[in-house]
Every structure is written in structure tokens, then in C-alpha cells.
Amino acid sequence: MNYRHAFHAGNFGDCFKHALLVWLLRALARKPAPFFVLDTHAGIGRYDLQSGPAQRTREWCAGILRLLERPPSPALADYLGLVQTLGLYPGSPVFSRAMLREGDRLACCELHPEEAAALRANFCGDRQVGVHVRDGFAALGALLPPPEKRGLVLIDPPYEDPGDIFRVAEGLRLAHTRFPAGVLAAWYPIKHRAPVRTLLDAVRAGGLRDVVAAELVLREPIDAERGRLAGGVAALPVRHGGAADPGRASAAARRGRAGRGGETLGGGAGMIRGILTIGGWTMASRILGFVRDILIAALLGAGPVADAFFVANRLPNLFRRLFGEGAFNAAFVPSFAGLLATDGQEAAQAFAGQAASVLAFWLFGLTVLAEIFMPQVMTVLAPGFLQNPQKFQLTVTLSRITFPYMPLICLAALLSGLLNGMNRFAAAAAAPVVYNLTSIGFMLGLLHVLPTAGHALAWGVSASGVLQLLLLVWAVRRTGMRLHLPRPRLNPAMRKLLRRMGPGLLGAGVTQLNLSVDVIIGSLLPAGTVSILYYADRVNQLPLGTIGAAVGTALLPTLSREVLSDRPETALATMNRALEYALLLTLPAAVALLVAAHPIIAVLFQRGAFHAHAVNFSAQALQAYATGLPAFVMVKALVAGFFARGDMGTPVKVGVGCVALNLGLNLVFMAPLQHLGPPLASSLASWANVAGLTILLARRGNFAVDAALRRSVPRVAAAALAMAAVLWPIEAGLRPSFAQPGARWIALAVLVGSGLAAYGVAAQMFGALDVRASLASLHTGLKRRRSQFRRPTPRAG
After folding, report:
1. Which of 156, 201, 293, 518 is catalytic?
2. Given a cut of 90, is residue 106 above it in pLDDT?
3. Cα separations in angstroms, 362 against 70, 348, 407, 489, 490
4. Rounded to whole angstroms, what are the CA distances from 278 to 275, 453, 787?
5. Is 245 a known active-site residue?
6. Which of 136, 240, 293, 294 could form a disulfide with 109, with the two C-beta atoms 3.0–4.6 Å apart?
7. Residue 469 half-sphere exposure, CB side, CA atoms within 13 Å?
């Protein structure tokens, strides 16, 4: 997006920008009260178009020269009149000075000493103009608010640094906070569409509202090789209570509200919206997953066919969770988002296409090998099944049916990462809904056609992979991306991606590896243990998947942008808020599962082949998993702190230690605790993971618990304990109803509703949650989602 003023002076972009500037200043001058103008990147003030850089590019010939040769339109009369009377070609500070009245003031900032000297020479002895040799972004904090009650702030950097995109957005937020009555205007060139989208998304995440994006686009080329302005220019006037109404600046400019936010740090508003979007779709997926699991429990119970299917489904889903929620996103999203922000859509598109090609080549090769050697793979994953040859053979057969899901869902994860990198969360979060719907459809439709319900479920898994991939391909095409699969090549970018992804498979996926250890140990325990652990984990996955996946997925792009733009304080605040949001939801969820594990399992699964004995064992396993629920989610947030900084190795080292700890604890617990051993070992290993990651982040200066988090955690814990005190007597009183088929769902709804109400009241009483503020924030977020930025693109010529 590089746009040095001297090279482009007088071109069509300058004409558009300066005409809007004159219009805004003319509107401010309609009221008699004095106003203040701050020009953050002023340049030298005047430009000789007949020599120097402007003569080399001669862009002014198609800009101001063309306008002067034709009869002026009324809308441009003031602007062209000033150009003809001010001499040379005036820059924005000269236009601003010409529009000042007696009592108005202009402050010009220019960091480069030579240009600042030329600017001072232009305004020598002018008492209404101050020239400051300083960084324009820093001036927003130093020079605002002015004594005047109204005015204009123009942010017009050269965009030589890719981080300027985020500095402009942060500058607008800061300027509005310090000068809410001012008219804010930010200029950006259109070299690629992707950086413009990134800028407007960042402005929206900053909580500004009444934002008008006015753009003049002559054509839409992307010229990444030559690095020149390809043909688009734009201005972003932002009105917050000023005299002017920038929405009338152009008939083509349309207004879009982005919602009001307070002085939040770290892109918190955008992250919260991402968490809500991902969490909402994930919640829908979990609910459908429960419907599927209820059917599985009724048809298969906790018997050998259920054990065989759950092991067969574990392997491809291990890859799904690692790639969809862990290592691949962690390596791909920062690289893709960085290319999109700095080099534009074509470069990011080529990178994504090459990544898809390399990934597809290796994954389909791995699938062929796995299909051939599936008996050996199952010997490792379920060694206990070897004692029952029929059960082992069924497991191998079902695994061969489900394994093609792995390459399909990993490619879908790449497309999900692409969409997440563009802050498009909905389609990627909705894909698991397709998985559950397809599984339910195949189970019901093919139950009497195939040998067992396990076979129908296995075919449904692979079919869902095809449908999810098609959904995400459609979503990517809607963004304007056109991915092509070239010949797979391990070029430097791909080698870097694979290096970053490889260790992250373990670092980000340690939770899934711990659960895989649970399956291995479970296969060595009495028959049905694998199924018992599965049903307990499915209930545990409702809060874990909804909150954990949402926090981890939404946090990584936000944190990556903040690290890239060198804002360590903002990144630190973002980490603290992510942990605060996670604990606010997971601590009460863990306590609720400890109290109500038995009725939850009984109501959801006790029917058909799933008997009371299995209910008791699954409820006990669920309680053991619940002790580690907050840790499972915190790990996802803490790992993002390393991945956003390109550090994939440290989480690996911590993860290896935690896997070893989990395995050791499983071996210790296996004999005395039986089915309780695997979930309890996983929970303890996850808390060890949290401790290790937190200590290492803190030692590097990348994390410290802030005052808000220190204040929040004990209050949340107190509210969760108060909720438990309410739930225990209610659960005891409703216990007879849980055994009655007609009343069990109503009783569970009463128990869950009572818990939610008790926690809400207790959180409000203890100060852990401001319900009114939360409802207001949610209302604002919903309004914001209904009215996004609409960028007009009036065509010239």
C-alpha cells in the first residue's frame, strides 16, 4: 500500500482526497465557533509537478491537469479555485490553512527533518499554524483534545510499513476517545483490496460508529509485482458529533454503522464477535451431536460394536481436531493473514493454493498407506481389542471406511483457516453441523441396509467430509478468492509452513493426544470402557468445544495482528481478556458437571441398549473430566500466545512432557481406579500444561496477569460455588423425576435453568459479571452485525 506523497502529488487520488478535505472544512466553517485541524502526516506542503518525483511518475497529468482542462463541476469549484490561486500544487496542510478563519488553528506533524523544514518555510511567521517534528500517530495522544470544541483530524500516512494499517485504525479509536466531537478522516490508497478490508475490519473492531467509506475506483487491477498504485483511491471520513456530515460528501457514499464501543484494548470487540459467531455455530453442532449420540446410545449402547466404531472414528477425528482447531490454523492463519495485509490478495491466494496442493498430495498418500496397514495401526491405537478377534476385525473394517474423512477434513481445515484469516468465521464454524446432520441421516437411512449401525455411521462420517469441503469451497469463492491447485512444490514458503505446523501438531493438540492415550488405556480395561469414556467426553465437549474452540480460533488472528503491528500492551490485554472470558464460562460449567453429572448422563443416554450400570460409570468419568475443563480451554488461549509470535517449539516441549505425564498417571491409575483413571489423568496433565505455558510466557514478558483478571477470577469462583450450593438440593429433590420417562427432560431443564439463574445472580452479586453491561454489549454487537461497512465503488470514466 506504499503511497509517498511526492511521487503521487496531483494524481486522481490526491484530487479526490483534497476535494473531500475542502468539503469537510467548508462544512466546519458554516458555524461561527473556532475549529482546530490536525494533519498527522503533512509532508512538505507544496509540490512542484514539473520536476522531481512528480515529473518522474507524471500521474498528475491524468489527475489535476485533466480537471483544470475541463469546465469545473459545482462540487469541485471550491477545490479547483484553491488549486489555481495557491501556487504549485498544494498539499493538505496548505489547503487546510487556506480554509482557516480568524481564530481557527492548524497543527501539522512531519517526522522527517528535511520535509519538516520545508513545511516550516511554507508557514514561516504564521501564528495560526504550528509545525511539529514528531510522529503523527503519537501526536494524536499529545495534541488532542484541543481547546477548541470541534475540528478535523486528518490521518494520512505513506503506508510504507505494513503495520500502518493497524496504526491508522488504532489512531482513529484514540482520536475519537480523546476528541469525540471531532470529525475524523483517514486516507488510504487502494493498491489491493485485502489491506483495505483489513483496515476497515480493524476500524470496526475498534468500536467506531457512523463510519462512511468513500472510494473512487477507476479499475480493479492487482499489480503486486510492480508495487505501484494500481488504480484505486479512497477516503474514510468518520463523523462523531462534528458539524459536518460526511455521509453527503458523495452521492455514491453509503453510511454503515459499526457500533459504539468503550475504550477497549486489543481488538476486544472484534474478538468477542468472533467468539460469539464461532461459539453459536459450535453450540448448534454440539446439540446436533447430542441427538446423534442419543441415537448411537439407544442403538449400540456400550457394547462391542460401539467400542469398534468409537475407535474407528477416533483416528480421523484426531486429525480433524488437530488441523481444524490446532496446529494447522496456528501455522497457516498468521502467515496467510500477514500476506493478505501486506502483499494483497493475489499473494495470499497463491500461498493458500500451494499449501492446499502440498497438503492434498501428502494426505492422500498417507490415506493410501493407512488403508493398507490399518490392522497395524489399530494394534497401536486399540491393543486391548486383540483379545477379541471378531471385535478387532470389525474395528479395522470400520476404520478403513472412516479414514478417507481425514484428508477431506484437513483440506476443509485449510479453507477454514483462510476464512478465519479474513475474519470470516461463520462458514467454518457451521461445517461441523453438516457432519452431525449427515451422520444422523446415514444412521437412520442405512440402518437396515448395512450389517450394523456402526457401518452406517462409518459411511456417514466419510460422506460428511465431502459435504463439508464443498460448503467451505463455496464460502471461499464468495469472498472473491479463487484457489487453484498447482503442482505441489516445497518452495521456501511451504517449507516454512510445514516447519511451523509439524511441531505444532503436538503443541496445540496435546489435549487430543491425551484423549488418544485414554482410548489406548481404555481398550485394555473391561469391555465397554471405550464407549463409557466416549459418552462422558461428549458431554464434556459441549462447554469445551463451544468455549475452547471459539476462544482459540478467534484469539489467534486478533493476537497475530497485534504482535505484527508491534503493540505488546494491546496483545497482553487481549490475552488477559481471553482467559477472563474462558474462566467466566468454564468454571461454572465445571462445577455444574460435578454436581449434575448423573442426571445429565441418565437423561441424555439411558434408553435402549444403554443401561443404568453404564450411566453410573459414564457419570463418574464425566466428573473426572470436569475437574480439568477450565484447563483444557485455558491451554487453547495460552498456546495462541506462542503461535502468534511464530514460536511453535515451546508448546511442543511442554506438550511432550504432558503426554508423558498423562501416560504415567494412566498406568498408575489403571488398576485401582479402572474407568476413572484415563479422564482423571487427562485433567491433571492439562493443569500441568497450563502451569508450564503460563510460566514460560511470563518469563519472556509476553504474559502477566492484569488487575482486571486478578479481580475477576476469585469472584467467578465464588459465584460458581454459590451456584453449586443451589444446585445440590434441587438435584436431590428432582432425583425421582429423572427416572420417569415423561418428566426427565422437564426435570433436567429445571435443573439447568436453576443453575444458570443462580450463577447469573451470584455473579452479579459478587461483581464477577455486569449483566446490564453485558446485555448492552450484546445488543450493540447484534446491531453491528446487521449493518456492516458497505464500501461504494463509483466508477470514473
Report:
1. 156
2. yes
3. 61, 21, 9, 11, 12
4. 5, 31, 19
5. no
6. 136
7. 19
